[in-house]
Amino acid sequence: MGTDTQHSKHQINANNLELTYDSLPLWEGGSLALGYKFLNADPSADQVDEPGSGEHDYSDGHAFMVELNQAVAGTGFNKTVLQYYVDGSAAQGVLMGAADTLNGNVKSGSGYAIRNYGSIPLGDRWDLSHAINYAAADSIETWDNDQLDATMFGASAKLAYHWSEITRTYAEVGYFADEKTENGADYDRSGSKYTVAQAWSLGRNQPELRLYASYFDSDNDNWSDSSHAFEGDDSDDTWVVGVQANVWW
């Protein structure tokens, strides 16, 4: 979507009403969840009279969800999620936004998302996890009088090898492709990433410390701002090396 549409200044507070029916059994290892979320726009006084845009209303949002859960090979799982968005929530699928977030710049429109992700054990030492996302937004009209249609696709896969209960190695690949039509003009961009990581923890499924190296590349040449993605808009690819820790309590 356009840079202005996803700018943080357009994220507004909302009063949420959420209805969920979870864990409806279907068959052995399979269950269904259904959900609906209504977001009542609650902008601040500054957002109601936004400098540069003038005073305007804000659209409420609606999000509908169906989720199919399936246990796989004992400790594995697979989830397929269908989401449908209306009005103020219409762009959330293509922006990878949370269903409880309201984009105040979207006046009307609709969108949907199809997501599949999971993890499969491949024996005692190997695990394979994946995520696949496709989303579209149709007939989006913004309060800035822009007309937008957009699609996004993303996929990733991560292979893990457990050397022991406390150390493991990861190899991960990912790819994305976005397209949009903004006021009659077509744009696209795409990119990929490759990561290797070594991790240590106090046991499987416990908080871990990771040492990683990642390579990213992205083609923004046909996106609306014609900028490069990395290194101060000077490069279409880059390397990142770092340390990451995840903890919970």
Automatic annotation (TrEMBL):
GO terms for biological process: monoatomic ion transport; polysaccharide transport. It is a multi-pass membrane protein. SUPFAM superfamilies: Porins. Keywords: Cell outer membrane, Ion transport, Membrane, Porin, Transmembrane, Transmembrane beta strand, Transport. Its main location: membrane. GO terms for molecular function: carbohydrate transmembrane transporter activity; porin activity. It is found in: Cell outer membrane. The keyword Ion transport applies. One of its GO terms (cellular component) is pore complex. Pfam families: LamB. InterPro entries: G_neg_Bact_CarbUptk_Porin, Porin_LamB, Porin_LamB_sf. Belongs to the porin LamB (TC 1.B.3) family. PANTHER family: CRYPTIC OUTER MEMBRANE PORIN BGLH-RELATED. This is Maltoporin.
